[in-house]
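Reader question, answered in our methods column.
A reader sent in the components of a multi-part assembly and asked whether the whole thing could be modeled at once rather than chain by chain. We filled in our standard form and ran it. Here is what they sent:
COMPLEX SIZE: two components
ENTRIES:
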Amino acid sequence: MPRLNLYQEEYYPSPIQNTWKEFKENHAALLSLYCVIFFIFLMIFGPFLAPYDPLQQNIDLLLVPPAWDNNGDISYLFGTDGLGRDMLSRIIYGCRMTFGISLVLVIISMLVGVALGAMAGMSKGLRSSVVNHLLDSIMAIPTLLIAIIIIAIVGTGLVNSMWAISLALIPQFIHQTRDIVRQKMKKEYVLAAQLDGAGKIHIFFNSILPNMAEMLVVQVTLALSVAILDISALGFLNLGAQAPSPELGALLSEGLTTAYVAPWNIALPGAAIFFMMMSINLVGDGLRSALRYRLLR
Amino acid sequence: MNDLLSVENLRFDNCHGKRWQNKGSKFTLGPINFSIQAGETLAIVGANGSGKSLLAKLLVGLEQPDSGSIYLNERKLEHYDNKHRVLNIRMVFQNSNESLNPGITLGSILEEPLKLNTRLDNQARIAKVEQTLKLVGLLPEHRFFYRHMLSDGQRQRVALARAIILNPQVIVADEPFAALDPSVRSQTVNLLMELQRELGLGFIFISHNLGIVRHISDKILVMKQGKVVESGKTDVIFHWPKDEYTKKLVHAHQALINGQS
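And here is the structure of the entire assembly that came back:
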């Protein structure tokens, strides 16, 4: 029997719609979201957009200024670098590389961290402590330093720096998850779920995870900005991505040699990193407040 | 007539598990004996810390008794036999505000026991949720709501809906009316009695409010420091209390009523 629908105009938004409604109110966050979407778009479709091969050198056109300069050339929108490589293509590929790698790293460390944290939070006693403090020693050392240590042992390279950064990001996730799980396990609704016959795994996914979204969003955005900074810092120090590869940090360090003659070689990659960081942080902030207010209004 | 739920010599000592962490104070509950029939209401009254909530937890299986046994329909309930217990004995918590998950909609809260304990498909589950919401006097649309959108009385109704959605035989309620104002309280009490009549539930409830106890219960269990001091029919206990403690309780209640009128 179809239900009699008396109030046609009444409309019940789903949780996600509710969050979106709150999020839209925050204009800075919305703008930053478009920015992040743009970066994700670049990440996926970068190779189709880039006008040149990022590694292709053109000896006739060294250090061409950007198109808006008097001496600029419109076919090289962002100019070229000291080896005649097109800056625009290099930055597009650079964003793709830096952003994509950071995203992958954060997702991996989130999955590992949340899994370990949940295990620590749901169990009791010694086992909980061991799992919780498994990677604590890593927290005492700055991420970059661990990366440098790992690289000193295994040698330079992008993959090695990725290992280092994801290892360094995991403990934060473990601790936050464990604290939240501990806190929520004491709530009566978890007791009620137990009385429904729910097992531990079911309780975690159905009762605790929905209440963890806020913390996860904050943690993911923090981790994402840390990852981007570290990847580019290691690239800049020539420890991560190696010279010819178009990674934003590596681009910066290459541009440094011609900084006085061609300032756009460091300004443009720097601006790309800046926009990436800012938009991610603003989106994270907006999402956090949207998630919090969703449950208050 | 057969007993729906009966409890024999139930005992519980509050020093479990960590034996090396020997605690000074020791609380012993029981031995407790009682039985109820279908459609009957048993009220448990007593001071704070007299083990009422602990008894409720033992009944629903959150705690394991040290000795004694609980029979449902003359079949012994073992502690590991959770499935059977979940389907037939449900609990309503004291504070419905705490017992509803703030992060998910009421629909998913109510669907959870169905998902775990029945084989209904998605559509049937939603239908059942809506039907139960109607039964407790809410609208089917309330399944899209979050906890914070409801008033206290509505929350209590949702907690009740959660208890009855599996068609249990016994409901254990731990002070279900404590947080409500008098008018909503009487509404909820009437709702409960109506549901009990319709569904033939056995109802065990814990309360401080002797007025409500007198109104809805058939039997009373008076507890003091983990021991049952008196038990029997409501009328008998209210008119001819035997124990000193029960006398005090009843007199206090009488004084309150006389003072009001």
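What stands out: Chain A has a mean pLDDT of 83. The interface with chain B takes residues 3, 10, 12, 14-15, 187-189, 191-198, 202, 206-207, 210-211, 213, 295-296 of chain A (CB under 8 Å).
Send us your own complexes using the same form.
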